Amino acid sequence: MLLEIFSFSTLTANIDKSLHAWMAPWLAVVTELVIIGIVFLLFYAVLGLFLVYLERKVCAIIQNRIGPNRVGKWGLLQTVADFIKLITKELIPIRNADSFLFNLAPFIVIAASFMAMAAIPFAKGLHAIDLNIGIFYIIAVSSLGVVGILIAGWSSNSKYSLIGAMRSGAQIVSYELSVGLSLLAVVVFAGTMQLSAIVESQANGWWIFKGHIPALIAFIIYLIASTAEINRGPFDLAEAESELTAGFHTEYSGIKFAFFFLAEYINMFIVAAIAATMFFGGWMPFHIGHWDAFNRVMDYIPSVVWFFGKTFFIIYLIMWFKWTFPRLRIDQLLNLEWKYLLPLSLMNIVIIAFVVLMGWYFH
Amino acid sequence: MSEEIIKNIIVREDEDYIVNMGPQHPSTHGVLRLEVCLHGEFVNYLIPHIGYIHRGIEKMSESDTYKQIIHLTDRMDYLSAHMNNEAVCLAVENALGIEVPERVKYIRVILDELTRLASHHLWWSAFGMDLGALTTFFYGMRDREKVLAIFEESFGSRLLHSFNIPGGLMHDVHPNFQKHTMEFVRYFRKKLPEYKQLLTDNIIFHNRTKGIGIMPCETAVAFGVTGPSGRGSGFACDVRKVAPYGVYDKIEFKEILHEEGDSFSRYLVRMEEMEESLNILEHVVDQVPEGDYTARMKPIIKLPEGEYFQRVETARGELGVYIVSDGKKYPYRIKFRSPNFSNLFVLNTLAKGGKIADLVAICGSLDLVIPDIDR
Questions:
Q1: What gap in Å lies between CA B15 and CA B6, rounded to an integer?
Q2: Residues A326, B131: C-beta atoms closer than 8 Å
Q3: Is residue B46 part of a domain?
């Protein structure tokens, strides 16, 4: 049944073979790395621009507006125009700022989000690297971003930035725990950390259905905690506009600001992609038990469509939060994590371990 | 008693962590500068610095005729432009002992309440923004637009419509004025529950405002905090009730009072005031009698020698106009008691010991309009 889904690994294997045919092995590997790097760079830029456009359209719909509709068809080129504006803007040097760290910070933030992209399976057989600790790697790498945020806040010699960075540090470090624990729930179910294996394990039903109540709890905790982790509303305390003007990136301008901006959106994509992969079956089509005819129809939809469909559904949820809820206060935010989410997710892990031990889930 | 409350002992030290909020800051709603001393996330004390938009309206008024002063009062609290006009007009009319036609009185009350609604729309929009709920802004603006359309139809301008003149109105209202007002009342009654769904019932909003910036009634009285902010502390200060003007004594309406004195009760007062304004409008709009739109006035208005005082209830509190006349066509001295000035200076007492986020919430719940403070 699964064999019918087109696997991108045949394509990549062919490219690999043809490269090896007329190149030295080391040169072939280098060429492949360069190609993958360029592909990711392009994908990153296009995705960032599209997400910004999407956010503006989504928030416009929520707010009774039309949104960008002048540049290009349906305003599709609006973000491209914005990006051109941003790269041509002056990079304002800040007096008394630590210029080395000040310039380094945006790159750390953007590199962290870039690295996390590598392990995500975008479709069947379409991932840069299939680590056997894939999900662990993504969590580890994506939390590096906070270093960049702290450096940005510290080095820009601004009081608003410093407060924003401190808030962000406290927030990301605490919500990391809940994110990790709620993803651990699926790891316990699937019995592996390898992302491709986790996706394969959902061939006969996504974990959010198979794992019923505990998986649902884990998903809700993940959704809340990951929204907090990427500093988005209602948890956008690090850049709380009405309090700290722009938080940690108050002093940044031009392309350096754009780096923070892009990284924020890509982080949102990564978070949604992980949620889709772990809870909603990644690129796996929607299958119902033994309804073979139905399942076959579902298989005709390409896996890449499934993956992006699920991911953008979760992105839409996250955007919906931001444009509806007021912002929390810093102490309420930390209370929510340490007093409610963390005990709940710890308890959930114990329940899941018990459920898996007794086999009380659908398989 | 009240002196003790007002006394703000601020000890500045060299190693204080001072953050300047403003004059350009998203949450001060204008060019207000707050010198905030922080201890981590906590506010130790704050000192408001005002005067960034001082235009000398009181001094300018000394060389203007009474008809010209009206246009300056628009620029004080631009969101209660009509009430500001009315204050000066009433002061002049009372000084001269002119009885304005009934029609004018009714239309002025309708405009009062429409202006109050428009002002509360804007406050609600901006308050949501302060707390990070960005969508409220567009919902509030959507409904405010309807009010402004009514203004535009009758006066040609939307915000600063110096429509009052001493003795009445500049010209008669548009024939559709009452019909459109009634349409708006019906429309907004349907839309008000949306406000409740979007913000009032939100649990995060409750956490952010309940028990934040508690202002006991004594503090409100001591600082002279009036308007919805004062009534949120149980201070019955509605001028429409205390010293009725126009036809407010003939209209049945509730004075909204809440006892808690926190940001949430100040919020509730305004929300219920919107509803009450709709009730007043519904009650009044059909009763507007036919007649003249202005009393017969001399072309040059000269007040007899003496001192005159008139107060009205603007959207933000009690506006007092104090005129000293020496019998000429210009006032000898004019002084405005603006509500926002008093409302601002209670901020230190309320925000002290709270967090930065609380400061923003309190500042928003006091609903400050900066040009009214500086004048």
A1: 26
A2: yes
A3: no
> Which residues are bridge partners to B36 per DSSP?
B19, B46
Is there a domain that residue B9 lies in?
Answer: no
For the record, the structure tokens of B80 come out as 């209660």
DSSP string covering A278-297: HHS-TT-----TT-HHHHHH
Domain ranges of chain A: 94-358
Statement: residue A84 has pLDDT above 60? yes
Peptide bond into B23 cis (omega under 30): yes
- d(CA B135, nearest CA chain A) in Å: 6
A340 contacts in B (CB within 8 Å)?
Answer: none
> What are the helix (H) ranges across chain A?
8-21, 25-62, 78-87, 99-117, 134-142, 145-155, 159-190, 195-200, 207-210, 212-229, 241-244, 254-279, 292-300, 303-324, 330-335, 342-358
User: pLDDT value at position A1?
Assistant: 44
d(CA A206, CA A194): 16
Average pLDDT over residues A277-298: 78
pLDDT at position A3 over 50: no
* Alpha-carbon span B104 to B323, nearest angstrom: 23
Token pair 């008024």: residue: B61
Query: Is B134 a domain residue?
Result: yes
**CATH assignment of the domain containing B342:** 1.10.645.10
Residue A2 confidence (pLDDT) above 50: no
The rounded distance, in Å, linking the Cα atoms of A123 and A8 is 7
Interface residue ranges in chain A relative to chain B, Cβ cutoff 8 Å: 59, 62-65, 159-160, 163, 167, 233-234, 236-237, 240-245, 322-332
Q: Which residue has the tokens 């209209």?
A: B251
Task: Give the residue on A whose Cα is nearest the Cα of B134.
Answer: A323
Question: Does some domain include residue B271?
Answer: yes
Taking contacts as CB-CB distances below 8 angstroms, the residues of chain B near A59 are: 134-135
DSSP code at position B287: T
Contact A245/B131, CB-based, under 8 Å?
no
- What pLDDT, on a 0 to 100 scale, did the predictor assign at position B213? 85
Percent of chain B with pLDDT over 90: 5
d(CA A110, CA A360): 42
What would the pLDDT profile of B132-185 be if each residue is shown by its tens digit?
A: 888 888 888 989 999 999 988 888 888 888 888 888 888 888 888 888 999 999
What is the tally of structural domains in chain B? Answer: 1
C-beta separation of A259 from A112 below 8 A: no
| Boundaries of domain holding B276 | 55-374
Closest alpha carbon within chain A to B138: A63
- Mean pLDDT taken over chain B: 86
